[in-house]
C-alpha cells in the first residue's frame, strides 16, 4: 500500500485541483493506496472540500485536528496513522508535482528506504527566499551534527521502517526536515522542477520561516550555546590585554582623563553581548520547558474514514 500524507490549512481553492492531479497518478501505479488528509484547523471550507473528495474518490481518509497546530504537527499526525509500506508526504498546493510519485516508487523498489524529491533550482522563488534558503542550509549544516540535503522539503518517499523509526521520537517541538534526516537509512534523490502554487497563498511568511530556521538549528545543535563560551573567553582576554595596556600607558605617560565615548561603546557592546547570550540560553530553556510539560503534539477532533467508518 502507498500512503499519501497531505496537510491542509485554508486550502479550499486547491482541494479539487489537488485530487484531480493526484488520483490519476495513483491509479496508474496499480497499487493499493490511501490519501491521508490532515485538516489543520482550517477556518475556510477546506473540510467541506475534503469531505466532497472523500465521497468521490476511494481511499481518502480525513483527520480533522481540533485547531491549527502547524505543519510539523499535521505531518506527525499523518505519519502516526499511515498504514502504507511506502509513505509520501506532499503539499496540497501542487508545487510538489504528483507526477513525480512513480519515479519515487521506482527508486524505492531498487532498495532505497528514503527517496528525496530534490529541487533542481529555485527559479520560482524570489531573490530573498532563494538566498535565505541557501544561507540556512549552510549555517545549519555547519553547526548541526545532522546534515540536511539542500533544496529538499517534506516531499519524499519513506519506507515503512523509516516511518516506524520516526514514530519512536518523542519530542514535542518538531522540525520534521531534521527528524527525517536524523533517522538515516539508505537514501537516494530524484530531481524535479518545482511549480508555482495552483491557488491560495503561502502560509509561511518571512517571520515564520525565520522562526522555523531557529527551530531547526536549536533542535539539532548545541553549538549556539558553545559559541558564547568562546565569545566570553575572547572578550575576557581582550579586557585583560586592554587592562595591561592601560597600566603600562599610565606608568609611561601618566594619568589622563578618559573619554566617555569609548566607555559608552564598551558598556553597550558588553551589555548587548550578554543579552544575546541570555536569549540563546532562553531559547534552549524554553524548549526544555515545553518538552517537560509532555503535552501531545496534536489533538484530533474527528476522523472521517472512507464509507463513514
Care to describe what's here?
The chain has 309 residues and is α/β, with parallel strands linked by helices. The protein contains 10 helices and 8 strands. The chain has an 8-stranded mixed beta sheet, sandwiched between helices. α5 packs parallel to α8 (206-220) and α9 runs antiparallel to α10 (260-293). It is elongated. 29% of the residues are buried.
Helices and strands in order, then pairings?
Layout: E1 2-8, H1 15-29, E2 33-39, H2 46-56, E3 60-65, H3 71-81, E4 86-89, H4 101-109, E5 114-119, H5 127-143, E6 152-159, H6 160-167, H7 176-182, E7 187-192, H8 206-220, H9 223-253, H10 260-293, E8 300-304
Parallel strand pairs: 1-2, 1-4, 2-3, 5-7
Antiparallel strand pairs: 3-8, 4-6, 5-6
What overall form do the CA principal axes indicate? elongated
Number of strands: 8
Strand content: 15-25%
Helix content: 40-55%
Number of helices: 10
Provide the structure class.
alpha/beta
Distance between the termini: 19 Å
Side by side, the strands of the main sheet go 7-5-6-4-1-2-3-8
Amino acid at each position: 500500500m502507498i500512503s499519501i500524507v497531505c496537510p491542509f490549512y485554508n486550502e479550499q481553492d486547491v482541494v479539487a485541483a489537488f485530487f484531480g492531479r493526484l488520483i490519476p497518478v495513483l491509479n496508474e501505479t496499480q497499487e493499493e493506496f490511501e490519501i491521508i488528509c490532515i485538516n489543520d484547523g482550517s477556518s475556510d471550507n477546506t473540510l467541506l472540500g475534503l469531505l466532497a473528495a472523500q465521497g468521490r474518490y476511494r481511499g481518502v481518509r480525513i483527520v480533522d485536528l481540533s485547531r491549527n497546530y502547524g505543519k510539523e504537527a499535521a505531518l506527525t499526525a499523518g505519519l502516526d496513522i499511515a498504514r502504507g509500506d511506502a509513505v509520501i508526504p506532499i503539499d496540497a498546493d501542487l508545487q510538489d508535482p504528483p507526477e513525480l510519485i512513480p519515479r519515487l516508487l521506482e527508486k524505492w523498489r531498487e532498495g532505497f528506504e528514503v527517496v528525496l524529491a530534490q529541487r533542481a533550482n529555485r527559479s520560482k522563488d524570489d531573490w530573498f527566499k532563494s538566498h535565505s534558503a541557501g544561507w540556512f542550509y549552510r549555517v545549519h549544516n555547519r553547526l548541526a551534527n545532522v546534515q540536511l540535503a539542500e533544496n529538499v522539503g517534506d516531499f519524499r518517499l519513506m519506507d515503512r521502517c523509516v516511518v516506524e523509526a520516526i514514530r519512536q521520537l518523542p519530542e514535542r517541538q518538531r522540525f520534521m526536515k531534521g527528524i527525517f534526516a536524523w533517522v538515516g537509512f539508505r537514501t537516494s534523490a530524484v530531481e524535479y522542477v518545482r511549480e508555482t502554487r495552483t491557488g491560495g497563498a503561502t502560509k509561511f511568511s518571512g517571520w515564520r520561516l525565520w522562526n522555523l530556521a531557529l527551530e531547526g538549528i536549536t533542535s539539532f545543535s548545541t553549538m549556539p550555546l558553545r559559541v558564547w563560551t568562546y565569545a566570553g573567553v575572547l572578550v575576557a582576554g581582550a579586557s585583560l590585554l586592554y587592562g595591561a595596556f592601560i597600566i603600562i600607558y599610565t606608568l609611561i605617560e601618566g594619568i589622563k582623563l578618559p573619554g566617555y565615548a569609548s566607555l559608552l561603546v564598551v558598556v553597550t557592546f558588553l551589555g548587548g553581548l550578554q543579552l544575546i547570550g541570555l536569549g540563546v540560553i532562553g531559547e534552549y530553556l524554553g524548549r526544555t520547558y515545553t518538552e517537560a510539560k509532555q503535552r501531545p503534539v496534536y489533538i484530533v477532533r474527528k476522523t472521517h474514514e472512507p464509507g463513514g467508518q
